[in-house]
Write a structure and sequence with these properties.
The chain is of the alpha/beta class and 166 residues long. The protein contains 7 helices and 7 strands, in the order αββααβαββαβαβα. The protein has helices at 2-11, 40-48, 50-58, 71-75, 103-106, 127-138, 150-165; strands at residues 20-25, 30-35, 68-69, 79-83, 98-100, 118-122, 144-147.
Length: 166
């Protein structure tokens, strides 16, 4: 519909819906026009919040926590690491305290998670851990993220620490 209005302006044809909204009900083919009046006080109020809006717009996460974090980010804070891989999957992460809850059991074992800590989930590729983050956010666990690079990234970091200390 907006394209039609643009064409009317460019071609100077017909009446432009300036100050009106056209509603079309496709099931009944009913057309309704709603008049809109401009209120300067509302426009001024919206424009006053422009800077705040731009700050939020520049934040790619809109104030929410990012879905993925790096190993270095988790080492700088108190987190609960949760491995959502199946119990038989390798490599095992032994260098850190890890809670092992396979993704298919997560919803039933949610009581094993510490809501006081940031929960960082990982798997082999990041696909299951992102699914786990989504599941937890649906259960109001907003302070959770997926570990970028998964189990292999944790092991690589462990190897780097060993090499630095030798």
């Amino acid at each position: 519909m907006m394209a039609n209005e643009v064409l009317k302006i460019i071609l100077e044809l017909g009446n432009v819906l300036s100050g009106r909204v056209l509603l079309y009900e496709s099931l009944t083919s009913k057309i309704t026009t709603i008049e809109i009046t401009r209120k300067e006080e509302i426009i001024k109020e919206v424009l006053q919040g422009k800077e705040t809006f731009q700050e939020q717009f520049n934040d790619p996460f809109c104030g929410a926590a990012p879905l993925e974090v790096s190993v270095l980010e988790i080492l700088q804070q108190e987190v609960q690491l949760v491995d959502v891989r199946n119990l038989d999957e390798l490599p095992k992460v032994t260098s850190m305290e890890v809670t092992r809850i396979p993704l298919h059991e997560l919803e039933n074992r949610i009581n094993e998670l510490n809501p006081e800590k940031k929960i960082v989930l990982f798997c082999a590729t990041g696909r299951r851990s992102l699914m786990a983050v989504s599941l937890l956010q649906g259960k109001n666990f907003m302070n959770c993220a997926s570990l970028r690079g998964g189990a292999q990234e944790l092991l690589n970091h462990q190897k780097n620490i060993v090499h630095e200390n030798t």
